[in-house]
Every structure is written in C-alpha cells, then in structure tokens.
TrEMBL record:
Residues 33-179 form the Flavin reductase like domain. It holds the Pfam family Flavin_Reduct. InterPro entries: Flavin_Rdtase-like_dom, NADH-dep_flavin_reductase, Split_barrel_FMN-bd. This is Flavin reductase (DIM6/NTAB) family NADH-FMN oxidoreductase RutF. Keywords: Oxidoreductase. Belongs to the non-flavoprotein flavin reductase family. GO terms for molecular function: FMN binding; riboflavin reductase (NADPH) activity. It comes from the Bacteria.
Amino acid sequence: MSKELSSPAFGVLDLTPPLLDSPPDAEGLRSALRLLAGGVTIITAGEGDDRTGATVTSATGLSVDPPRMLVSLNHTSSTWPVVERYGHFCVNLVGPHHQALANQFAGRGGLKGPERYRGAEWTRLASGAPVLDDAIAAVDCVVEEVLPRHGHVLVIGKVAAIRSRGGQSLGYCAGRYVPIPESSVFNG
Ligand SMILES: Cc1cc2nc3c(=O)[nH]c(=O)nc-3n(C[C@H](O)[C@H](O)[C@H](O)COP(=O)(O)O)c2cc1C
C-alpha cells in the first residue's frame, strides 16, 4: 500500500519503501536477513579455564516433545570444539541489561574463552555447562546430534534442565540490539 505525506515545500511525498530484487547470493541474502529480528542467546560450554561461548541468534527450539534445541555454530567459532569435547551446551536467553555481556561473547573487545564470563554470575545445572544466573531463561542441553553443513555445524541438544526467571528479552535486528517487551506468560 502506498503512503503519502503532504508537505508545503515538496507537494505530495510518496513514502512507500522501494521494492528491491537482489541476486540470490551471499550479499542479497545478508541484506534480506538484516530485516529478520532474532532472539539473542549466549551459548556456553566447558569448565574452568576451558570455558568459552558465543552470542548467537541461531538458537531455537527444534521440538518441544521430545524437548530438543538447535543451534547453528560457525565451524571456525572457538565455541564449537568445546561443545564437541564436553558434549554439552547451555542456551542462555538474555535481556536488554545483558547487552555488554552479549558483546563480550560475540568476541567484541577481543575477549577470549573464560574472559568472556567476566562481570556476571554463573552456576551449573544438569549438563555441567555454565548457566547465566540472571538469564531470563536457560535451557541446558547435552549434545544429541551434529550435522556439519556449509561451513556451519548444526548442533541438536537434548534438553537436560530448564530454568526460567522471565523478563524482557533482547533481540537483534538491522545490526542493532532491540529490547523485546516482557513475555505475557510472566505478566499473568
Ligand atoms: C547478534 C549476533 C548473532 C550471532 N549469531 C551467530 C550464530 O548464530 N552462529 C555463530 O556461529 N556465530 C554467531 N555470531 C558470532 C559469534 O558471536 C562470534 O563469532 C563469536 O562469539 C566470536 O568468535 P570466536 O569465539 O571464534 O572468537 C553472532 C554475533 C552476534 C553479535
């Protein structure tokens, strides 16, 4: 639908966004996917000095019955070998107050491995993977299956424990973090 705005200086302005057909290549797909709002999670794995993790938008529920999670990790990510070695990972759902932590786990500022855990409290549930104490929810998993595809590893996790606290969640869209209103589940 076309949108118009009257302006004394310019007459009638057409504010309809232009339609853009892109080639079906990496650049075209990248610019289309910028428009997809993703939920921000922090994937954690390992223990002690052997801990690391990554901020991802690719984590999702694969199935609730049976309870299974799915995450796509870049094959070159420092997190994948640790997930593979320990056979576990935790999907920590984060809120707007975790933006700095999300940047740490995205490797911004050059922090590596256990340094990414700075500034937050951590615990463990069933699988042994680090769990963010004040995550809005944490889904703790043991690795069930791994599918290497196109430079990524699709990791399927069997859910071993779930902890939920509720609160606003953090999204990522068009290259920025965006707060997502609190889930109505926790508003009664
Ligand atoms: C919002 C956001 C979403 C991301 N999603 C993914 C993802 O789904 N899979 C992935 O492998 N990396 C993803 N990344 C990149 C990783 O966070 C980053 O590459 C990693 O933590 C740093 O790589 P390193 O551990 O090898 O240093 C994302 C980064 C950001 C900021």
